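[Automated response] Your request has been received and processed.

Submitted sequence:
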Amino acid sequence: MSKHQAAGTAEILRSAQKDEESLRYMRHIISDITQRCLGIPFWMKWKDLSNTCSDFLFFSLTTLSGLQTLGEEYSNIIQVDKSLTSIPSKWIRLKDIIIKTFGHYFLLRYQTYLENKLAIITPSPSADNDPIIAAFIAHLPTIFKAIAIMQRIHLIAFYFTGSYYDFSKRLTGIKYVVIRRWLTNPAYQTSYKFLAWIAASQLCLSLVISAYSAKIKNTATCKDKEEKQNPSEVISLRNQCFLCFDKRSSSTATPCGHLFCWSCITSWMQNKEECPLCRESFPPSKLVLLQNYY
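Generated structure:
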């Protein structure tokens, strides 16, 4: 096969959206068969696995069999290797399908398993005595958050380069080429790069806000420790507003239980309808001005 033109962001996105419609239809069929044959309780317990197997069957009948998916046929693109000159081997296509379908399923299952398991282990004395388990428990939310950030970075990279929309494609090195070049428009890539810059800016801003929230939380934790060590300072610390860091005036409570000055929290709510400390969302009407509270 001679070297072809690499598919752009628009073609790959159209293909993915068209395939998603076919996947939803196939999931519906498999779910209906499962409910009729094995009963609704069984389907409720294994519906996620049922959807995963349905996706695997769809890609096995198309990609693994050497055929285009409906989305790829609609967008006039085919899968090739990194050199853009040959079709990926059947083994590489199988790895791509397994990672795409079962990878996400087992990641979610493993996350749920760890959360349930650690909820039982944490209160036990043995967990406190083992520094490895204690460190793992402490960093588990950070690990899951890092995975979510990596997924966002992967999507941003796709908008910039126009390659590897699926994480499985990046791991296996599968790319797309256009069959009919006259149906493509390279100018579309510019608008997607602009979208990538917006997504990257949003990600950076969210990371800054998260870091600032963690800093505020650590400050509050340190002050709580100081309150326990210095009982004489309890009153002044408890009356402090964590927005202006001065003594609270007209103490106002949020639905999540945090206290701020009335003027501080109302000014904050004009920009963001959420708690500055825990980020719980709520409308300004939920604020409660505490009368006769000192």
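Summary generated for your ticket: Residues 122-129, 231-235 have pLDDT under 50 and may be disordered. Strands lie at 77-80, 175-178, 251-253, 259-261, 288-289.
If you did not submit this request, please reply to this message.
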